[in-house]
Amino acid sequence: MDSLGVLLVAPMNAYLEQELDRRCRLFRLWESPADRRDDYLRAHASSIRAVVPYALQGVDAAMIDALPSLEIVSSFSVGIDRVDLDACLRRGVRVTNTPDVLTDDVADLAVGLAIAALRKIPQADRYVRAGKWKSKGDFTLTTRFSGKRVGILGLGRIGLAVAKRAEAFDCPISYHSRSEKPFPKYKFYPNVVDLAANCDVLVVACSLNPETRHIVNRKVIDALGPEGVLINIARGAHVDEPELISALLEKRLGGAGLDVFEDEPFAPEQLFELDNVVLVPHVGSDTEETCWAMADLVLQNLEAHALNQPLLTPVI
Ligand code: NAP
Q: Does the active-site annotation cover 282?
C-alpha cells in the first residue's frame, strides 16, 4: 500500500506510526500548528485517501469535506462516537474500528476500578507512602467487592466480559441494553433507573450515541444511592458530570471509579479533592499487548482496502 496517503490525526501509538510511515505515505496532522491545520489539509487534500483517528480526536464533517480523495477512516478505537458516520455515509467513505482485541483489558480495568474504589486501594497506598501507618496506626475499614450486585449498562462485548469477571467474584449480574440478551442468569431491566436501584456497583459499558449521552443523570445516580459505586469505562459524556460531582460531595453516591471524562484530558478538578473516587486517565485499552493488536488491526484494514479486499472490521 505504498501509494496510500494516510493522515494520522495525533501521535497515538509509536508502533502504528512507524508502520504507517514504512508502509504508506504518512501525513502527521499534529506537525502543523493548530491554527494552520486547514492549510495543511488543503495542501495535501489530493493525496490523503485514508484517515486514522482515535478515541480523543475523531473525524468531523469539516475534515471529510476538506478531503475530496478520502476513501476510508480506520479508527484506532472501538468507539467511533467522534467519527461523523452520516458524513462518511453521504460521501461513501468506509469506516473501520478495533473491536474485540481490547475487550479483555477494558473489562479488567472496570473490575480493577470497582475493587480499587470499594477497597480504597489508592488511598491505602497513599497512607503507607505518607508514613501514616506508622504514625496513625491501621487504615480505615473498607467495603468488599465479592458478592456485590453488579449492574451493567450496555451488555455488549465489554459489558459481557465485565459480567463474566464479576461472576467469578460471586456477584449477581443485571443489565440494561437496547434489547434483552440470551443470558437467563443475568437479569434484564428495560430502564436504567431500575437497574441502578437494584445494584451496588453500576458499570457503564455502552457506546456513546444521542440516546446514551448523559444517560447517567441525577435520577440514575440517586437510584444507585449512598452505598452505590459508579464505574465508567465507556465515555465521559455518558455521565452528567456536575450531577455526579454534587452527588459525591453530598454523599448521595457512595463512590466512583472513572477512566473517562467529558472534556478529556481535563478531568474536573473538584474530583481531585474527593476521597471516594478513583481516577485514571482513559487507559482502558492501554496495555502494550492490546495497543499492538489494535495497531495491527488498523494496518490490516488499510491494507485490505488498498488491495480492494473485504475489510476486517467494517462499521460502514
Ligand atoms: P459494543 O459491543 O457495541 O457494545 C455496546 C453496548 O452499548 C451494546 O450492548 C448496546 O446495546 C449498548 N447500547 C447502545 N446504545 C444504547 C442505548 N441507547 N441504551 C442502552 N444500551 C445501549 O461495544 P464494546 O466493544 O463493548 O465497547 C463499548 C464502548 O466502550 C465503546 O463504544 C467505547 O465508547 C468504550 N470503550 C472505552 C475504552 C476505554 O479505554 N475506556 C476502550 C474501548 C471501548 P444493544 O446490544 O442492546 O444494542
A: yes
